[in-house]
Fold Peptide/nickel transport system permease protein.
Amino acid sequence: MSHKSNSLKQLALQKFKKNFWGVFSFYYIVLVGLISVFAYVFAPDNSQYANQMHLAIHSKKPGFKVMMLTVPSQLETKQSVFDKLFFGKKNTDTEVPIKEYKVKEKVLAYKEYASDGLEGAEKSININTFPNNLVQDFIKEKTFLFGTDKYGRDLLSRVFVGARISFFIGFVAVFISLIIGVFMGSVAGYFGGKVDAVIMWVINVTWSIPTLLLVIAITLALGKGFWQVFIAVGLTMWVEVARVVRGQIISVKEMQYVTAARALGFNDFRIITKHILPNIMAPVIVISAANFAGAILIESGLSFLGIGAQPPMASWGAMIKDHYNYIILGKPYLAIIPGLCIMSLVMAFMLIGNALRDALDVKN
């Protein structure tokens, strides 16, 4: 039996490998996952939430370059390597975009950057402020590959850090929906009768409420925030899983292997978990992939409405909200870039769901 099971898994894997878009989507999702986990390693701005603002260079086009003077702070910040790696650096230094500078005696004179043909303010600072008086080590040309947002923050860094919310909400929401949905669907489908009627009533009531409205209600009850959105989205996505599991169990619970398990005296819990669920997981896996995409879209919608992840936390939906009016102001990339990120990740999950559906279909 195990040999047959392994051969079916290998056959499904071979079919999946032949699907170009499925494999491509898998590697793309892995890439986004790595960027999400190690966002502050890849991001040019590794400050917490990539929130280093420079109002003088706001809304600049992709590829914009400027000289950046970093004025070291006298404050000492104690931060572990783990904290820096996963939560960003607590940056107390001051970054100043400059147009030109010169060192005369023991004074650094510089002119601040100003756009639109304006002249920046001329300022000076004692070079003793810099360790070992090495001024040149603190003046570097900085390139903003995706440009800057309306607050002068590095858009590429914000996209990397924002990927964390969109990516992980899929995992948390699908995990919650699987736990509730598989349990409710299994109980309803296996036992039937009044139990099935009660659970189906709960499912139909939940199903009749608009998803976004239900998420908003749960979010307002739990409060605005990062984890609250994760839980709220998960609590609204279990219905689809429960309906699929219920339907699958109703169709297989009278099959010979289930009857044989009952004849051998196995209890209901063992029959459901060891015999039925492993044989009906294919459609559940497919719908979970679709739920990943749905969770990302719902979170983006909540962030756009202002009740998702709260500032200064980066979120693709919030980035679109902050910059959608720039579409008609000649700088559409500020909203299009995070929009394309959402679209590509959702598309990847949908494509991998289709590939899994084809690979797990035993009829083909």
In short: The first strand starts at residue 64 and ends at 71. Residues 55-150 form one domain. The mean pLDDT is 87.
